[in-house]
Specification:
Blueprint (H helix, E strand, L loop, with lengths): L5 H15 L3 H19 L8 E5 L3 H15 L4 E5 L7 H9 L6 E3 L13 E5 L11 H12 L3 E5 L22 E5 L12 H4 L1 E5 L5 H6 L4 E4 L1 H4 L17 E5 L6 H13 L4 E6 L4 H7 L4 E4 L17 E4 L7 H13 L4 E3 L2 H8 L1 H4 L7 E2 L3 H8 L6 H15 L2 E4 L5 E3 L5 E4 L11 H14 L5 H23 L6 H15 L7
Parallel strand pairs: 1-2, 1-4, 2-3, 4-5, 5-6, 6-7, 8-17, 9-10, 9-12, 10-11, 12-13, 13-14, 14-15
Antiparallel strand pairs: 15-16, 16-17
């Protein structure tokens, strides 16, 4: 699913009007109908909760007026409030004229802002994607008033004051919505942690914008949902064998952190790898043999940490990092691996910390390597903190272009950056996955998929991210988010991959 810029969203609207031969007011009516259906499912007319719809002078306000009319016709009793404006948009004016006589509509006066009881429902239709500067004057006073109330706030398309694809100035006033109901495609602003307090829970409703325009629109941001990921994992051939799905090598574990290597190994096995060898320090050898008997354990001569790189010839992919430690000898193993390997690499945890602490290693990074940092590890890799979430995304694009690698920035809406700078935001996962070992499971799963030569590097990474989050979602249904542990994810990897496997075509 593509993520359009604010400008492209306006172009998509215009393309739809041209392709269908309809007016902008008719498209506005379509959006209002979708919003009202969404609201009616959650708030029946007989609930009698006070409802206030706040409308700005532009097309977002026009949406709000159309929503008010439709809700009034459905038996609701909303009150409409409009911001004073010398030149409201044409569609605002048209929808203002369409309001029935029995629907109260008031112009907002800063000295007499409406009282909003705690039970009230507020529909924010003040400003949408066209906003390009901070709110001032009466609009700013109103937003401050809404944020101080205890009413439930539902934003139409965008919370007013929030920019679609650019950072806010620190002193900007933005509506703090509990829900944001947007249209057709998600907005970049919805996916960034710094905007969570404004966006709340968000949902995108289809209004059938021109599919040809959307298909042809050049973008560098995508939202990875079920439809986007389907068709990327081929079914297994009846005559497949272990070699078909690759022999992976995992270098992981150190004294006190053998559990990380066990989690990664089990996830790799459940991810469908043909064979798995785990290079572990001697202290981890008996643990690995018992915890993951399906894997071959290759003990290092050192007791507490990995000091030797095995022969790489047998392997289709190599993963390194979970629980590895940052000893000097381990750093040299990583250096040798970067110099010698000719197969795909997956790097996580301490392997990333070693890269960050030794910039010379980054110069050895093979093309199309896959790195999986969390934000702090990524900061160490690039050498400086980000000013905000938008800046971090630009750092991410710069990093992958410079090093020709894939990079997974972990968190809510985990982001995969491809070597050309394209970003893919993952839709699956939940806060219960913010637990120790979850990243080790991801590393093992990605290693299995990178060892599968049927998959491109991009498809392997996308499938791994999506399946990892989906496994977490299924696990949370049984354990609850608070009770979720990393090992729970592993049990659901196989079923999730089965769901995603492309079936044979029907007759």
């Amino acid at each position: 699913m593509k993520i359009l810029t604010a400008a492209q969203t306006r172009q998509a609207d215009a393309a739809t009007l041209l392709a269908e031969g309809i007016t902008s007011a008719e498209l506005m009516e379509r959006a209002a109908t979708a919003f009202c259906h969404w609201l009616q499912k959650r708030l029946p007319a007989h609930s009698q909760r006070p409802m206030h719809i706040f409308c700005g002078p532009g097309n977002n306000g026009g949406d709000g007026l159309a929503i008010a009319r439709q809700l009034h016709e459905a038996g609701y009793q909303p009150q409409v409030w409009t911001l004073p404006a010398a030149q409201p948009s044409a569609d605002f004016t048209l929808n203002r004229q369409r309001l029935p006589a029995g629907l109260p509509c008031h112009e907002i006066q800063p000295e007499t802002l409406p009282q909003l009881p705690a039970r009230a429902v507020v529909v924010d239709a003040l400003f949408g994607t066209g906003l390009s500067r901070p709110l001032t004057g009466a609009a700013a006073m109103l937003v401050k008033h809404l944020n101080q109330s205890e009413a439930t706030v539902v934003a139409v398309d965008m919370p007013s004051g929030l920019l679609t694809d650019a950072p806010q100035s620190p002193d900007s006033l933005v509506v703090r919505a509990h829900y944001t109901v947007s249209f057709e495609l998600p907005k970049l602003a919805f996916l960034l942690p710094q905007n969570a307090e404004f966006v709340g829970q968000w949902e995108v409703l289809p209004i059938h914008l021109d599919p040809t325009f959307i298909h042809n629109a050049p973008v560098d941001n995508y939202f990875v949902n079920d439809n986007f990921i389907r068709g990327r994992l081929p079914a297994r051939n009846k005559f497949s064998h272990k070699g078909t799905f690759g022999h992976a090598l995992l270098l992981a574990g150190s004294r006190g952190k053998i559990g990380a290597s066990v989690l990664a190994a089990k996830a790799c096995l459940r991810g469908g790898v043909g064979l798995l060898t785990v290079r572990t320090p001697a202290v981890g050898y008996p643990i690995m043999q018992v915890a993951a008997p399906e894997a071959m354990a290759l003990a290092d001569s050192a007791t507490d940490f990995v000091t030797e790189l095995p022969d790489l010839k047998p392997y289709a992919a190599v993963g390194i990092g979970p629980g590895l430690g940052q000893e000097h000898a381990t750093c040299e193993v990583l250096r040798q691996l970067l110099r010698k390997t000719k197969v795909p690499l997956v790097l996580d945890a301490d392997a990333l910390n070693l890269l960050g602490a030794n910039p010379s290693l980054l110069k050895l990074l093979p093309r199309e390597s896959l790195l999986t940092p969390h934000p702090k590890e990524f900061e160490r890799l690039v050498g400086k903190p980000a000013r905000d979430d938008y800046h971090r995304l630009e750092q991410l694009r710069t990093f992958v272009r410079e090093h020709g690698c894939y990079c997974v920035l972990k968190g809510a809406y985990t982001t995969l950056a491809a070597p050309d700078g394209t970003l893919y935001f993952n839709s699956t996962g939940n806060p219960g996955m913010a637990t120790g070992g979850s990243g080790d499971v991801l590393t093992g799963l990605l290693l299995a998929l990178r060892a599968d030569k049927r998959l491109s590097p991009l498809d392997a990474a996308l499938l791994g991210l999506y399946a990892h989050g989906r496994a977490g979602d299924q696990a949370a249904q049984q354990t609850g988010e608070a009770g979720l542990v990393a090992g729970d994810l592993i049990r659901f990897i196989g079923p999730v991959l089965q769901e995603l496997t492309t079936p044979l075509p029907g007759l």
